[in-house]
Structure formats: structure tokens, C-alpha cells
Amino acid sequence: MNEANLGRSRVLNLLLKPAGWAMESRFRRLLHNPDRIVKAADVRSGQTVLEVGSGTGFFTPSAARLIGSSGKLIAMEPLSSYAERLREKAEVESLQNVEVVCRDALETGLANESVDRVLLFGVLPFPSLPLEKLLPEMHRVLKSEGILALWQFPADGWVPGSIGRSGMFSHLARNKGVHLFRRT
Predict the structure, then answer these.
(1) By three-state DSSP, how is residue 8 classified?
(2) Does the pLDDT value for residue 106 go beyond 80?
(3) Angle at 144 between CA 175 and CA 141, to 5 degrees
(4) What are the structural domain ranges in the chain?
(5) In Å, how far from its chain's centre is CA 52?
(6) Would you say the pTM of this structure is higher than 0.90?
């Protein structure tokens, strides 16, 4: 099965359904405050934000509120069951600035230099998002002054250094556990 069809796999969606419930748990909110983490990524009003691997939308409402009605949040999630749950959540919470896209982030389909911020929150390292394929696509869609924000759980590991060594991004800062990289 290729990566494009992986998110539509009935078996995979069924197997990962419990993880979706865990993503929305109150315990997770206590452990990782989504408002605090999104603010640390310096998400601002009016921006176009790409949230990679949005899952069921743990960070999506926080980011959508920060960018406001003049901004746009593209929530990209390859698992169809998670994307559907996120669509429902966006509708219930009246998040009209959110567009849910059921697609792999290795080929976003977005225009060149169309995004102000990319949020990689809790998705790296992940086998279906190899950095050597993901980083060129994120570089392509980010505007010239765009920022890639990385938050990992449980620990940083090797990913921030690998992003910096890619030559596509330079590390700006680490703010409350969120690494900020400028597109080079």
C-alpha cells in the first residue's frame, strides 16, 4: 500500500481509533496545554497556518482562535477517521477559518510560498513522515520569512538538529518547548 492510500486503510483507522480518544483526553490537556504550546509557536492573527498531522484536532481550536477570522488554518491529516472527527469538531466549535485536508504532508498540494507558519506538533519522528521528504515540501510551501514550529513529546531527540542541518531552515529559538526555525 502506498503512503497516499495508507490514511484510508480501514484496518489502520480501526487500530488507531483508541489513540484518537487519547489525543482528546482531559489528562492530555493537563499535561500539554494546547493554548500555551500554540502561543509559543508565535502564531498570529491573519496568518495562514499549516498544521501537519492534526489528528483529531488537539491544537487546531487554539491555533484557529489565534489567527482569527482574517487567517486560515489548513489542518492536514492523512487518517480519514481523524480528519472526519476534526471536521465535526470544527463545525461544532464554529471554526470557519479551518480547512481540513485528508492528505499526507509529503505532497501537500499547496501553492509555493503560501504559508506563514508550519506546525509540526507531536508528529516527528514518525516513520511515514521521513525528514528527507517532509522538509523540502515544508520549505516549498513556507513564505520567504515563514516559520516552521516543532514541538515533540516526550523529548526533543535528534529532530531539531536534523532540521537545522538540512540547510533549508535555521534555528531561531526554543520557546516553552517549541523550536522555531526560519526558512532559509
Answers:
(1) coil
(2) yes
(3) 90
(4) 3-183
(5) 3
(6) no
